[in-house]
Amino acid sequence: MVEAAPRPLSLLVAEDVDYNRRVLQALLECEGHHLVVVATGTEAVAAAAVGAFDAILMDINMPEMNGIEAARRIRSLPDPGVARVPIIGLTAEVDPQGRHPAVGIDHFLVKPLDLSMLRAILADATSQEIDATARPEVAPSGGDVLAGDWLDEMLQLLPRQQLNEIIGRAASALAEHLGDVKAQLERSDTAQVAEAAHRLAGLAAMHGCRHLGAVAAAVEQAGRSGALDEARRQAAALDEAAAVTIAALRRW
Fold first, then answer.
1. 93 CB-side CA count, 13 A
2. CA–CA gap between residue 244 and residue 68 (Å, rounded)
3. pLDDT at position 140 over 80
4. CB 29 within 8 A of CB 17
């Protein structure tokens, strides 16, 4: 089992998907950290301006104001102590450093989060020492349907009963978000299709549901491009991807 960071930290967490916020809060509070949790980039900038945080965990892809713009604005705040706060970008993107160079993000972590890596990054960013292996900047990817290594790590941190509850709620939430995507497709509203698919993709990424996350991301991209027929074509694979993923989660 990996060692936790030596001292509790004051953390600002910005994540637009409600269920993901609750999972992050549960995991980080188990580590003893104190959290302020917000849902948008705008709220993150406002909270950073008045708070004294050791670090910020910033989801990169949020509606209204994304994490990249929020990081830029935090770096421009007049108080130099606030403007220099370490910012850790959370994303499902494959190569976030290549896509977002020099944007004010100190580190990137790819969902599902590697907790040992997150601990090491937090310790490094706040000048703490931690007994951990060498830290890569971005978490490696793996398995097609589920990232079983992530679930194994969660089991090291959480009691099995609590993890089972998280997995059960995740399966139910995935089904709910899938229904939202279908409803918006029925309404032919590409902007809302993109938002619903974004929430589904974000929830899938947080729990290591890689195949479902990739399909949902394709629907989101088509929706943001205003391509309703392409969104529907991509969404045709959602039912099967969701069924396989939910079944795998419930078997775990």
1. 15
2. 33
3. no
4. no
